[in-house]
Amino acid sequence: MTKPFLSIRGIRKSYGSVTAVKNVSMDIAKGEFMTFLGPSGSGKSTTLYILAGFQDPTGGDILLKGQSLLSTPSHKRNIGMVFQRYTLFPHLTVGENVAFPLRIRRRPQAEIAERVKAALKLVRLEGFEDRKPALMSGGQQQRVALARALVYNPPVLLMDEPLSALDKKLREEIQFEIRRIHQETGVTILYVTHDQEEALRLSDRIAVFSQGEIDQIGTGPELYSNPATRFVAGFIGDSNFLDATVVAREGGKAQLSLGNGAMVEGVPLHGPSSANGKASLMLRPERLSLSRASVPSGIAVTVRDITFLGNNIEVSTATAAGVDLAVRLPFGHEAISSLARGEEVWLTFDTASAHAFV
User: In what helix (H) or strand (E) does residue 193 lie, and over which residues does it extend?
Assistant: First the structure.
């Protein structure tokens, strides 16, 4: 059996009575772009710092090419790191900043010059060698930091919220550049972010962190279409949630009562449950439809607002119990043409696209 390129095995980290990381495990393939996604305090950055050697784990191990890294000091792990704040040396030029990792490795001057030139070309900053960081934009400084992290060809590149200090437009531009650089170099990247859109845009796979643990690992489409937990369902994409009762269960599907007379069948159910157990039904806004005709399995709702969003329309609705449900319909959809605020309609959905969590 082939050993994984990078393996995280049961990593734990405690600070006194507080456990920041609980039994985190995963394997990362060579050349993969893996993102750690989660809210603040979920353990994603702590896991990254343990990988970098900046923190020691309370338990577990990290293997690179089958060899444990834990006894190797951070400066000898040969792992690249890019931080949120660019951490460039302000008194050095761009070229000197990028050359720094090679100089401390005592590489020959000719090799340093060649590698610095190649690294700056990679991040599209040719001709900036003599400029000081203070004279560059935030996006340019982050490109310099990226060039510096890649100039010595590390087997793994770690990136901790590298774009959070940039505005939206610039952030999207640098995301494109990071993806391009990953494809050109084939370097293995572990990337930390709390931004789900950024994770979906960049990653081969995503590890969703919650309260120090990994709830689920998968590709963007896998996490969106088949969330394993309620947290993942709410964190990846836009979601509506309705309280429901499990009436019957067969295999991984359930029959649910929605409490308003509506009964739905064949809904994928996650977690242990028996009949009459409470569940939370997740409905994606773009998987919902509206109808003026009464539907036995539909949900009666009142239209509260209609918002034009360019290529789609968002209809805000509410159930009789006051639960808000967002419906997203494509622009020009026939249900929109004469829809009015205050109107009572029926909300319907394909049960295969819904998920229930207990």
Answer: strand 188-193
